[in-house]
Amino acid sequence: MFRFQSLDEDCTLEEEDEGLVEEEDEIDQFNDDTFGAGAINDDWQEEHKRLAELDERDELAAGLSLGGGGTLGGEPDLGGTQHSSSSSSSSRLPPSAGRLPLPSSLPPLGFSSSSSGLPPPDVEDRPGDGDLAESLARLILEADPAIAGVGAAERPGPPPGPGLSGLHGLDQPRVLQQTSSIPHQHPHHPQLPPGPSASGLPPGPPPSSMLSYQQQQHLMRRGTAPMGQMNSHSIWENSMGFGPVSVTPGLVTHMEDSPLMSIIKEVGLPKRPPQGRNDEGRDLSERVPPPRSSSPVIGSPPVRAVPIGTPPKQPMSHALNHQIHHPTAVHVRAPVQHRYPTPFPERLSPNTLLNIANSPLCRGPFPPRVGPVLSQIQRAQLLNSQVAGFPRGGPGPPLLPGGGGFRPFFGGPPPPHGHRMGPPPPHGPPNHTPPIRHNTTHLHPQHRRMLTQRMQSRGGDRGRTGGDRRSRDPYSNLMTQKEKEWVTKIQMMQLQSTDPYLDDYYYQNYYEKMEKRQERERDSSKKEHTTKLITPQVAKVEHTYRPVQFAGSLGKLTVSSVNNPRKMIDAVVTTRTDDEEKREKQVWNKRRQILYTVEKMYSLLLEVQDFEKRFVQTPEEDRDALVEQHKSNTEQLCSSLMEKEWEDRVSDEQCVMIMSVRKGKRLISRLLPFLPSPQATAVVMAIARNLPALAKKDKQDQVLCWLVEPVSTVIQSLSSSSLTDLLQELQGSEGQLATVLHNKFGVTLLYLILSEGERMQSSDPNCQLMDDNRWTELVFSVTRELLSVPSSALSPPLFTPPNLLSLFSRYVDRQRLELLQDKLQMSALSR
Amino acid sequence: MSLLALTLACRCVFQLFYSFFKSLVGKDVVVELKNDLSICGTLHSVDQYLNIKLTDISVTDPEKYPHMLSVKNCFIRGSVVRYVQLPADEVDTQLLQDAARKEAMQQKQ
User: Fold this and answer.
1) Where does the signal sequence lie (chain B) (predicted)?
2) Between B100 and A279, where is the model more confident?
3) How much of chain A is helix, strand and coil, in % rounded to 5?
4) pTM, whole model, 2 decimals?
């Protein structure tokens, strides 16, 4: 139970000077009650009536008091805050045994009526029995920070002494603010043992506190005219206005009981005072959440507790930064240790940079996210890119062309203007507001280039219109910069990784490939490769929306929605005989087996592929282990292709099996470069040997052509005898060649072989190709076949090597040569 | 600190798609939401929860949703996305397969 006492003192305090005397009296009386002999009998019913009347007029006061009470700091703290507040308020009071724990024990109403001399803080003990519920409601409502109002913010005032705060050891910075303002208005009391409470309170200087309270009250009312009535409205007002009044923990729990809450819900907010009152000129809509403060109460223990959720202060954030900076960043390509630059401009601290960078951007449609990893380099880049201005179709953006900031990580020579990152000019926010600001520093330079090109082409015309929209942002300044950074840091910390290459595999590799592709193209074409603007073609189908209806139906029809999805598949059960099922199952099992093998090989392959990259990165000690692992991986890969019994022969069967699956073909094509030469040769042989079968299986997939490149590499490394062997394999049994010629890949392969042979012959006079007749014979048979096969059956190869003509010219006469030429359309040598 | 643990857990599951979507930043995509709304726009950014920010949006199905007329940029929470339609030539499927394999390997460990 709390003591709810509307405070006449309060209202009197709000009076002008004339009321002061009365206040004194009241205060004195309160003193008597609190610290004096005992409870004064008062007619609580009368008081109640009075208060009830006041209540109606006191809506605004309630509002005010709510505002004042708002800084209570939340319910959990309620007891404590109230303790401290009460303590603070009561600190001025002489130790009172009069902290009448029970509301029923009345601090006399006489207080309110008579005592004017009591210092404001003394107005704690109030009888408030009849309106216990109401006062409770008010208390809770006031305690609700959501209803917080202006009042607390403006009450710095000298809080009354240590009081109970020492007792309860509560640090309630915000509440302590309140306490001074609420000194008197405590409808509730903590159920303190009178002794300690009493002892803890040095008598404060009532007059000064009273004055300050008065000032506060004036502040609270924004200097509006004082209340007309002393005893009436102010009771509620002030009682509302307090916040953290001394409430015992028991009281708190009591308050949190459901019946009370229901009461509160019923009662709702206290009624607003009538509009006629002067002090209602305050504009309630101008309330802002009170600033967090840690104003210490004089004499109370120093405020160390920081409200929950406060972002870390500066030093901590620095520490955080350092933690973040030094591990390698996510979005940076795995930097190599020895190439780590020292680009950071010493003059600017990271936070300064961030602030500078962020401030112009706060108004964007998307407040920029701080670079994912706030490394020093990236901040410099951030500053560079953002502050240096965003292109609006204007001068070329200094957006680190060529990825200046990223150069160090390229693995190339240190950038010529890498030191650009040095002193970035921290000039003020750009005077134009680009439509959309992209924080591109974390992106791969290739990506960034593409983006900027795109933005330039699109953004030039839109640049001017966007500015006005952002001039007034109603949501700005809700969070301080530090808070924003703190939240962002939490997010970014999650994205850190020690191995960006592994964690960000797709992204890194994708842009690497793109770069390679572009370089290759540039080299070959020697012209500027512009990025294509790729837009998806969305078919514009004009239709108006008509909800599903049937004529003559009643009510709504069931329409598919998220919770009621439409039927996607018509699963039809087909009955099959046992045999068929068994066969199908077998087939399926086999296929699964193959797929499983393929996947296993793939993981090995990926490891092997990454070996190089990882090798460069690992420190010296670990390198040996890595090499070992690499070797074992390779061996495993090879052995998976080998025969079970003969460990040194490539298993045809296995190869074919693997290649019967599309994935497998892909796998082999990627695997070939990594195999040691003899094995690679053997694999190619196997392919040639089994080409018809493979071709047949490939009818659906048509992906054999993936193999062309790796196979050609292998072929080019073949010896002449192997080459001959290969050609022989290709021709294989009767009619194989015909099948080969049917197939695109086969034709290409054939050409490759022939072309290689030709190259060998023409380049190296000592070539052994002609040593035995095999090669010649084989070529003859090939030409025979080529000529005999109808043109329609001959499938066009992927490409025709240029030297085929010269090859054939060696072996065939002119007539045939021309025929061949026509057939194979080899007229253009430079094809 | 439990917040941190939770977010780290999220991270390892989503890294693949996050990485994938990052490579699509700046491209035009169509996002279909679970409430059947389809939004076409340029992918501005994505985060590890696959929340998507689109700029210059337009609702693809003609104005069944007229309330979107004035919206130019939007933020879409990742959990409400049903599909993201991508330009096919911006995707390297082989690389994506490799990335998926790597992720599987990582998760196994």
Assistant:
1) 1-26
2) B100
3) 55, 0, 45
4) 0.45
State residue B53 phi and psi, 5-degree precision: -110, 125
Q: Which amino acid is at A678?
A: P
What is the DSSP code (8-state) at residue A582?
Answer: H
A contacts of B16 (beta carbons < 8 Å)? 505-506
Distance (Å, rounded) from C-alpha A64 to C-alpha A185?
13
Q: What is the pLDDT of residue B83?
A: 93
**What residue in B sits closest to A494 (Cα-Cα)?**
B8
Q: What is the enclosing helix (H) or strand (E) of A466?
A: helix A466-469
- List phi, psi (to 5°) of B39: -125, 130
Chain B contact set for A364 (CB, 8 A): none
Q: What is the pLDDT of residue A128?
A: 46
Q: How many residues does chain A have?
A: 831
Q: Across all residues in chain A, what is the average pLDDT?
A: 60
Measured CA angle at B37 (ends B35, B41), to 5 deg:
140
Contacts of B106 in chain A (CB under 8 A): 502
- What CATH number should be reported for the domain holding residue B26? 2.30.30.100
Whether residue A666 and residue B94 make contact (CB cut-off 8 A), yes or no, is yes
**Where is pLDDT greater, at A30 or A316?**
A30
Asked if A83 and A177 count as a contact pair (C-beta separation under 8 A), the reply is no
Q: Which residues of B touch A495 (CB under 8 A)?
A: 11, 48
Contact B29 A543 (CB under 8 A): no
Q: Of A90-94, A478-482, A531-535, which one has max mean pLDDT? A: A478-482
Cβ atoms within 10 Å, residue A107: 32
CA distance B68 to chain A (A): 16
Measured CA to CA, the distance from residue A235 to residue A249 in angstroms comes to 25
CB contact under 8 A, A490 and B30: no
List, for residues A240-256, the tens digit of each pLDDT value.
444 444 444 444 444 44
If we measure between CA atoms, which residue out of A11, A1, A2, A3 comes closest to residue A236? A11
The predicted pLDDT at position A681 comes to 83
Burial class (CB in 10 A: 0-12, 13-18, 19+), B70: exposed
Give me the total of CB pairs closer than 8 Å, taking one residue from chain A and one from chain B.
Answer: 109
d(CA A27, CA A7): 10
What is d(CA A293, CA A29) in angstroms, rounded to the nearest whole number? 34
- Nearest residue on chain B to A439, judged by CA atoms? B45
Q: How far is CA A173 from the centre of its chain?
A: 33
Contact A25, A111 (CB under 8 A): no
For residue B60, the enclosing domain spans 3-108
CB of A245 closer than 8 Å to CB of A2: yes
Q: Which of residues 261-320 of A touch B (CB under 8 A)?
A: none
Render pLDDT for A46-59 as a digit per residue (tens, 0 to 9): 888 888 777 666 65
Please name the member of B19, B26, B106 whose beta carbon is closest to the beta carbon of A507. Answer: B19
Tell me how many domains chain B contains.
Answer: 1
Neighbouring residues of A544: CB distance < 8 A, sequence distance ≥ 6: none
**Which residue out of A324, A494, A541, A663 would a mutagenesis test of the B interface target, given it has the greatest number of B Cβ atoms within 10 Å?**
A494
Spatial CB neighbours of A28, under 8 Å, sequence gap ≥ 6: A115, A116, A117, A118
Query: What is the full DSSP assignment across A727-752?
Result: HHHHH-STTHHHHHHHSHHHHHHHHH
As a whole number of angstroms, the distance between CA A543 and CA A327 comes to 55
pLDDT tens for residues A777-831? Answer: 777 777 777 777 777 767 777 777 777 777 777 777 777 777 777 777 654 333 3
- Contacting residues of A for B87, CB less than 8 Å apart: 534-536
Q: Which helix (DSSP H) or strand (DSSP E) does residue B2 occupy? A: helix B2-22
> Helix A59-69 crosses helix A233-241 at what angle (to 10 degrees)?
20
CA angle B8, B12, B18 (to 5 degrees): 110
**Minimum CA–CA partner of A442 in chain B:** B22
Tell me which of A510 and A275 has the higher pLDDT. Answer: A510
